[in-house]
């Protein structure tokens, strides 16, 4: 290779001999070079510009198709153990090359590729373990991506991913969109496990996605790791809480960057462009600091206060625990009091899976009868409010069915009345029918500046479809159920509250230096 623009395709053998198609880009300076390894199911060709970027900064850059995808043969089994062993074999191969000289390796990936990077980093020690890991919007595992921590199934996101990538060597990104154009009610058909029948192609791995298996395995394994970690996520990403949990639980020097982005790490609104940063430049700077041991031995991060162009710094001293974090306070919004959230209607409502509250529509029916949700509204904020940290709803409520999901959605209404999602959470409960119980609904980690005049609108419902599968209220498994029943609900305002984490003492930071120190 003569220049960093040159990319060669080579074959790296997996432990069982499977030939893994791999693109390699080397710097145009003499080696040995530190290396970057990206293992992806989305096609290594999509990373060629990224490889050239790494090479231009002195890194040998490798992008590989995982087995069963694109240029690599074999069966495609998402999240299986072979990702760990194949990743270790690839890192060992890199270290055996003359241009590497057995030097340091950084495992890098986004989404499923972040899963590959993490399991490689957490594998058996030796030549197959990298020296640092960068995990962006990490899809931690099969169970973690399929269900919320409290049980409800992530239907729309998983249907889209499996339709596009499942049980095939290539990808069809618009497969679900095409199917929905032909049948807008596609995701309403029951049972959920028969989705493949309506997509028109075989999808044998789909039913097994919903098997009951434990979440949190990678977070648990990460607690014993001493490798440096950079994890990047977005407050609008469905996997944001997994990103935060990975950072909080990691045993080595960990850095978190949480921006106002979705799963593609892009902003939904042009007015928050000021919150964008050059992630490629950040990755290079962080990798250099990590590989020479310059990172301070603590958890450190930055959360964007979306809409402000500001970033709030967060810290956690590993030796002292949560007490080392930057100061925030929890503000409480009680239900049905003048200064909190006033009940508009729906103290009693019906959660009907045949007519569920939809996740893709922020409109709220005015005076609908019977009510399909409990609706509350705050007075306008007297001053701007910076939110940076976890949000939680604690409600007193009852259902007349033993099986019930409780979905809480908080929307920010600007002074002109425009609605924008702020926070969401859903939990699955099994409680005595008709008995009022205390229910805690985690609403994720927020990073947002709310301008003066903003109102908060809270909705409590029994469904959030199609983002989540409908609870049938019959006690059956929602993915195999074929019968639906309505559930009558009651919310007791007294004692119910919304908790938001507010920046008590502003600690604005420049995100890149904060992440790399």
Summarize this structure as a short list of keywords or feature phrases.
517 residues, alpha/beta, 20 strands, 19% helix
Q: What proportion strand?
A: 25-35%
Largest sheet: 10 strands, mixed
Rg to the nearest angstrom? Answer: 24 Å
Poorly predicted ranges: 270-274, 318-325
Largest sheet, spatial ordering of strands:
1-2-4-3-5-6-7-8-9-10
DSSP E strands, number: 20
Q: Structural class, please?
A: alpha/beta
Q: State the distance separating the first and last CA atoms.
A: 34 Å
Number of helix segments? 11
Mean pLDDT level: 93
DSSP helix fraction? 10-25%
Shape: globular
Verbal overview:
The structure is a single chain. The chain has 517 residues and is α/β, with parallel strands linked by helices. The strands form three sheets. Strands 1-2-4-3-5-6-7-8-9-10 form a ten-stranded mixed beta sheet, sandwiched between helices. Strands 11, 13, 15, 18 and 20 form a five-stranded antiparallel beta sheet that branches. Helix 2 crosses helix 3. About 3% of the residues have low confidence.
Structure in a nutshell:
The protein has eleven helices and 20 strands. It is an alpha/beta fold and 517 residues long.
Write the layout of secondary structure elements.
Layout: E1 8-13, E2 19-25, E3 35-40, H1 48-56, E4 60-65, H2 82-95, E5 105-110, H3 112-121, E6 132-136, H4 142-146, H5 155-165, H6 175-182, H7 195-199, H8 217-222, E7 229-234, H9 240-249, E8 254-259, H10 279-291, E9 299-305, E10 310-316, E11 328-334, E12 342-345, E13 348-351, E14 374-377, E15 385-399, E16 403-413, E17 419-430, E18 437-450, E19 455-461, E20 487-503, H11 511-516
Parallel strand pairs: 3-4, 3-5, 5-6, 6-7, 7-8, 8-9
Antiparallel strand pairs: 1-2, 2-4, 9-10, 11-20, 12-14, 13-20, 14-19, 15-18, 15-20, 16-17, 16-19
Helix pairs in contact: 2-3
């Amino acid at each position: 290779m003569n220049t960093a623009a040159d990319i060669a395709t080579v074959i790296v053998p997996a432990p069982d001999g499977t030939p893994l198609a791999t693109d390699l880009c080397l710097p145009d300076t003499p080696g040995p070079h530190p290396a970057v390894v990206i293992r992806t199911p989305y096609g290594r060709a999509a990373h060629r510009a990224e490889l050239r970027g790494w090479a231009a900064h002195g890194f040998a850059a490798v992008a590989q198709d995982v087995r069963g995808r694109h240029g690599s043969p074999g069966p495609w089994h998402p999240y299986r153990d072979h990702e760990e062993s194949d990743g270790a074999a690839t890192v060992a191969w890199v270290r055996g090359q003359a241009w590497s000289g057995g030097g340091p390796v950084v495992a890098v990936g986004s989404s499923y590729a972040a899963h590959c990077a993490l399991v490689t980093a957490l594998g058996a020690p030796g030549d197959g373990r990298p020296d640092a890991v960068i995990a962006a919007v990490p899809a931690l595992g099969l169970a973690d991506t399929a269900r919320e921590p409290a049980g409800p199934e992530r239907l729309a996101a998983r249907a889209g991913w499996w339709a596009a990538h499942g049980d095939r060597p290539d990808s069809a990104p618009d497969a679900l969109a095409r199917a929905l154009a032909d049948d807008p009610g596609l995701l309403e058909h029951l049972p959920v496990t028969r989705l493949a029948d309506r997509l028109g192609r075989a999808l044998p791995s789909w039913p097994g996605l919903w098997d009951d298996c434990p979440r949190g395995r990678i977070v648990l394994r990460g607690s014993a790791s001493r490798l440096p970690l950079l994890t990047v996520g977005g407050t609008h990403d469905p996997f944001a809480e997994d990103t935060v949990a990975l950072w909080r639980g990691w045993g080595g020097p960990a850095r978190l960057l949480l921006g106002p982005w979705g799963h593609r790490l892009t902003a939904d609104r042009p007015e928050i462009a000021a919150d964008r940063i050059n992630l490629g430049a950040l990755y290079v700077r962080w990798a250099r600091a990590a590989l020479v041991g310059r990172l301070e031995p603590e958890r450190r991060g930055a959360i964007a206060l979306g809409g402000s162009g500001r970033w709030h710094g967060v810290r956690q001293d590993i030796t002292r625990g949560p007490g080392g974090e930057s100061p925030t306070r929890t503000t409480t919004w009680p239900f049905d009091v003048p200064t909190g959230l006033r009940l508009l209607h729906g103290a009693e409502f019906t959660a009907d899976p045949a007519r569920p509250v939809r996740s893709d529509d922020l409109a709220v029916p005015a005076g609908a009868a019977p009510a399909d949700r409990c609706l509350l509204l705050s007075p306008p904020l007297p001053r701007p409010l910076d939110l940076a940290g976890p949000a939680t709803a604690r409600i007193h409520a009852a259902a007349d069915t033993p099986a019930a999901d409780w979905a809480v959605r908080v929307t920010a209404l600007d002074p002109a009345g425009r609605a924008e999602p702020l926070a969401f959470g859903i939990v699955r409960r099994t409680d005595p029918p008709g008995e009022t119980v205390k229910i805690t609904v985690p609403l994720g980690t927020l990073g947002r500046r709310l301008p003066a005049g903003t109102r908060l609108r809270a909705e409590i419902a029994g469904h959030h479809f199609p983002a989540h599968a409908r609870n049938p209220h019959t006690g059956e498994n929602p993915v195999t159920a074929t019968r639906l029943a309505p559930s009558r609900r009651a919310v007791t305002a007294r004692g119910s509250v919304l908790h938001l984490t507010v920046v008590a003492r502003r600690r604005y930071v420049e995100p890149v230096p904060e992440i790399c120190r």
